[in-house]
Amino acid sequence: MMILGIETSCDETSCALIKEGGHLVRHAIFSQTELHQTFKGVVPEIASRSHLEKINELVEQMIQGNQKIDGIAVTIGPGLVGSLLIGKMTAEALGWVWDVPVVGINHLEAHLYSSFLEHKELKPPFMGLIVSGGHTHLVLVEDFGKYKVLGRTRDDSAGEAYDKVAKCLGLDYPGGPIIDRLAKKGNPAAIPFPRAHLPGSWDFSFSGLKTAVLYFLQNLRVSSGSFIGKKNIGANKGGLKIEFPPLPLKTVADICASFQSAVVEVLVRKTILAAKKFGLKKIAVGGGVSANSFLRSELIRNGKDNKLKVYFPSLPYSTDNGAMVALTGYYKFKKGFYDDKNQEALEVNPSLPIKNWI
Ligand code: KG4
Ligand code: ZN
Fold first, then answer.
1. How far apart, in whole angstroms, are the C-alpha atoms of residue 124 and residue 128?
2. How many other CB atoms are found less than 10 A from the CB of residue 297?
3. Which of 212, 224, 330, 332 is most open to solvent, judged by the fewest CB atoms within 10 Å of its CB?
4. What is the pLDDT along the chain (358 residues), one digit of tens a residue?
5. Residue 312: CB within 6 Å of ligand 1?
6. How far is ligand 1, taken at its centre, from the CA of residue 101, in Å?
7. Ligand 1 pocket check for 82: Cβ under 6 Å
8. Which residues surround ligand 2, an ion (CB under 5 A)?
9. Minimal CA–CA distance to 251: which of 328, 170, 305?
10. How many domains does one find in the chain?
11. Domain co-membership, 291 together with 180
12. Do 162 and 300 sit in the same domain of this protein?
């Protein structure tokens, strides 16, 4: 069985081939990061146009040498509607031309499965943590296609908090990898930012932390006289632009490390607690923030202390990629959970929830 995976939910155009046994054969990603950097965030129109320009080239790379395809897996949500539509229409057209079935894939489910790409010993049941740019979910994975979403963020996702804090600090987009790097030079105990543990619930909340960083920065700039001049402070009311001289690198590094330590502490504590509470021995993490070096080391260390094995995908499969989509499709085809007759299953849905197949 050879499955072509197509991922276009946000700002990465990606295709991959998965063969029998769930092994990756080919994988290609085109990242749009540079296109969105000036805007410090993803611009939906630019994203969908770029997917349209790139997708055929990536598909061609997958089918070189007359590669035979038995099925196509495509992300149908959650994500940006225009971007999702490019992937869906491509998949449908190819499915029609090649006369092969097409299965719709939930992007979050694919993140949950991303560790399977390289850790063949990993099988459900396990505790899944999805930490991406748009979502933060704690999911009990009972079996392939059988989930209990225990908790989710009540406001910002972990990735969103990273990106917004980076923006406040004047750093580039996406902010997560930059904060990760800068935090290594800072003191995680420098600033006691709040931790929303939300006892009695498996939910998360990161917007209070983001606001705390914002207020901390405002106070710091006022008290350290970091404003360029009195004229500009007054100009605030007059609607003129206020410019700040850059903060010292050590201060930025301390803010990054302290913010990151607050995010990671909550993620690690809740994930470990949930795994223990539900009697699981394994944890698998997916989504862009799973690339974070501090989250990785802290979760692995705490996991060891609690006799839990923690799985992460390697860096190229932590952020959005077609390989995880192809692999999720492979499991769906293999287990017969695809509906090529039911075209409704291929409707894109920007806020597609995680659903059980069984
Ligand atoms: O899963 P993903 O690639 O896209 C979505 O599905 O949203 O996640 C993107 C998010 C961004 O917010 C980005 O800042 C964050 O993942 N990210 C990181 C790191 N690498 C990417 N956050 C923290 N540390 C990183 N090393
Ligand atoms: Zn993602």
1. 10
2. 11
3. 224
4. 999 999 999 999 999 999 999 999 999 999 999 999 989 899 999 999 999 999 999 999 999 999 999 999 999 999 999 999 999 999 999 999 999 999 999 999 999 999 999 999 999 999 999 999 999 999 999 999 999 999 999 999 999 999 999 999 989 999 999 999 999 999 999 999 999 999 999 999 999 999 999 999 988 877 765 543 333 333 444 555 555 567 899 999 999 999 999 999 999 999 999 999 999 999 999 999 999 999 999 999 999 999 999 999 999 999 999 999 999 999 999 988 776 554 556 899 999 999 998 7
5. no
6. 31
7. no
8. 132, 320
9. 170
10. 2
11. yes
12. yes
Same domain, 101 and 130: no
Report the nearest atom of ligand 1 relative to the CA of 166: 14
Q: Which domain holds residue 94?
A: 2-117+317-346
pTM score above 0.85:
yes
Looking from the CA of residue 133, the nearest atom of ligand 1 is: 7
The closest of 258, 272, 134 to 202, measured between CA atoms, is 272
Residue pair 283/215 in contact (Cβ under 8 Å)? The answer is no
Tell me if 219 is assigned to some domain: yes
Q: How many CA atoms lie within 13 A of 291 on its CB side?
A: 21
**What are the residues whose beta carbons fall under 8 Å from the beta carbon of 220, sequence distance 6 or more?**
226, 247, 251
